[in-house]
Amino acid sequence: MLRKVRVQEAPFDFGAEAQGFADAQRGMGAVVTFTGIVRDLDGTLARMVIEHYPGMTEKALSKIAEDAHARWSLGGSLIIHRHGALGPDEMIMMVATASKHRKDAFEAAMFLMDYLKSRAPFWKKEETGGAAEWVAPRGADEDALKDWE
Amino acid sequence: MNIMYFAWVRERIGAPSEEVVTGAATVADLVAELRGRGPRHAAAFADLSALRVAVDQELTDFDAPLKGVREVAFFPPMTGG
């Protein structure tokens, strides 16, 4: 069973990662991918800086992946999450899941996303021209976890 | 014991980490000690409902025991993804 977690500062090649992930699967009928992108909602964002907790981040993401594999029938999963300074429209992270049937891959991808938003030690700071502000957690993100309990 | 701070907690404290010698039995006891270190610490720990804590890199609660613990981290709710 293929389970990969990567935390890195450098950009990743989404196409190559998705292709490589799909190519590594055997007997899987479905691959689902999700990509998170830096949003510039009102055209003022200079950059987004993502801080993380080296050591704990990898452990937390691995645990979330492990929980997904325990819950759904998955052939593989991949989580890539960046840290450091990112510009508008840059890719922040991606997840990929593979399963025999699409439902497992879709649900597991949602689960990975919901948990890594609120349970993996990342913090986003948005920098505009003169100001910098830490992104506040959304109540909806915390509520999403309740649906999985 | 190594105490680590992230995001606005780190900014408020003014340092990413510090070594602390403590006999605190729980995270809450440790917080009470840290608050006494000065105004920056008092400001960072003013509202515990705005903070999360990890003990030896595992998320936990403020009543978690500290016996044998090497690393405690304080930070705001996480915003990954």
Structure description:
The complex is a heterodimer of chains A (149) and B (81). In chain A, 35% of the residues lie in helices and 35% in strands. Chain A has 149 residues and is α+β, with helices and mostly antiparallel strands. Chain A has a single domain, classed as Aldehyde Oxidoreductase, domain 3 (Alpha-Beta Complex), CATH 3.90.1170. Chain A has a four-stranded mixed β-sheet with strand order 1-4-6-2, with helices on both faces. In chain A, strands 5-3-7-8 form a four-stranded antiparallel β-sheet, with no helix packed on it. In chain A, helix 2 (56-71) runs antiparallel to helix 3 and helix 3 (102-119) packs across helix 4 (139-146). Chain B is an alpha+beta fold. Chain B has a single domain, classed as Beta-grasp domain (Ubiquitin-like (UB roll), Roll), CATH 3.10.20.30. Chain B is 27% helix and 23% strand. Chain B contains three helices and five strands. Chain B has helices spanning 7-13, 27-35, 39-44, and strands spanning 2-5, 17-19, 52-55, 58-60, 71-75. Chain B has a five-stranded mixed β-sheet with strand order 2-1-5-3-4. The longest helix of chain B has 9 residues, at 27-35. Chain B is globular and about 30 Å long. The N and C termini of chain B lie far apart (31 Å). The interface between A and B is medium-sized, with 27 and 17 residues.
Short key terms for the protein model shown above:
heterodimer, A: 149 residues, alpha+beta, Aldehyde Oxidoreductase, domain 3, four-stranded antiparallel sheet, B: 81 residues, five-stranded mixed sheet, 5 strands
